[in-house]
Amino acid sequence: MGILTYAEFQDYVSLQFGKNTAWMSPTNYIGVWVNTAYRRLTTQDMFWAAQRRFYLPALETSTSSDTADGTAYVATPSDCLVVRDVYNTTNNVHLHNIPYRRYISYTDRSDTTAESAPTEWVRFGSYIYLHPTPDAVYTLNIYYRQIPTALSESTDKTVIGAEWDEPIIALASYIGKVWTMDYEKAKFLKEEFQEQVAGIVSLYGEEEKSRQEYLRIDEQYKNGGY
User: Which of 100, 167, 219, 220 has the most CB atoms in a 10 Å sphere around its CB?
Assistant: First the structure.
């Protein structure tokens, strides 16, 4: 969780505007800029045509949902950005993600006589469609990347790590400078944001290595031991 509160974010961003309270009353534009920066950081992987591929562990979450007999889908969580995986906890079975075109090619997807425990899933809009159509109630664990709730109360904090506080300030200030057409300062803030993020992403990349499987050469082969 972040260290800075919503009120503190606004206070830091306001420094870029000479503590001018006109940007906070009667419309709290600075608050809008902070939340816009927070939303962009947590829902976008592309900034200024450069792909960053942010991995934010705090946004990876799960929820359970029960199927209904004869209903081919369950609702996607309302705060879901990307569905990662679906697991049937009733039968202890992992469901396979399939393309939507394959799903609609199944002629039995609406056949009530072909119901069974689902083995496949695909997200389409606000629903996760299952195949086969469930023949009973099954409890599914849905693993997904969450869209965080906007900051609103003065004591609210972000749900991501404190290391992202500075980039949020820089990005919020950049957004504000663009809105106010101060493009020279916006350019500086853009570079500051990119530099801050580059350092964080490189560290997160170390953790990425442990989450993926790689084909590694046995040390004995490398050293001529065989």
Answer: 167
